[in-house]
Amino acid sequence: MHQMHMDKATFLDWAGAREEHCELVGGRVVMMIRPLIGHARITRNVLLALDRRLDRVRFEALSDVGTDTGPETIRAPDVVVVPLGTESSSRTAPSPVVIVEVLSDSTTTIDLGDKVAEYLRLPSLLAYLVVAQDEPKAWLHVRGQDGQWPGPQVIKGLDASVAIGPLGLDLPMTDIFAGVHGEEGPSRPDGG
């Protein structure tokens, strides 16, 4: 397949008119494989769990939003948390505070490798969460009070939870993996 090269502005215009998911990596267009149902469920669950717990006066959780990570790179994370009031017409999240990626067979090396380095360079970012798709497991990077990034915390099991301290968030793994491996759906605030 022919690889297309573009600058960021051209890519954002081009990608905005397409249905395919893609990223711009080092000036090259990289087509993304459509996710499996399990991936889509986890993404939805994370989005809902964040939405229910975020301070809605300050933040919102979004999906399908690009993130500018370098001179020639636009990534497409599964979920981003941005400050409330981010310009609606913006094509990228200018100041993400949390980025979430859900692993798939084709993205494991990138999500746990290249993207870690790119995302952790973002000055606004407070946490980067990578969630496995085939088991209840996650890797959480949280910026320390000193501004540094200690190694990732590995979170395993449905009885665990993901604690994003800088935002006062606690995301139960049961909510993240609800409906994925036969687990019950996420709890709802209305008791339903």
From TrEMBL:
Domain Putative restriction endonuclease: 10-159
Pfam families: Uma2
Protein known as: Putative restriction endonuclease domain-containing protein
InterPro entries: Nuclease_put_TT1808, Restrct_endonuc-II-like, Uma2
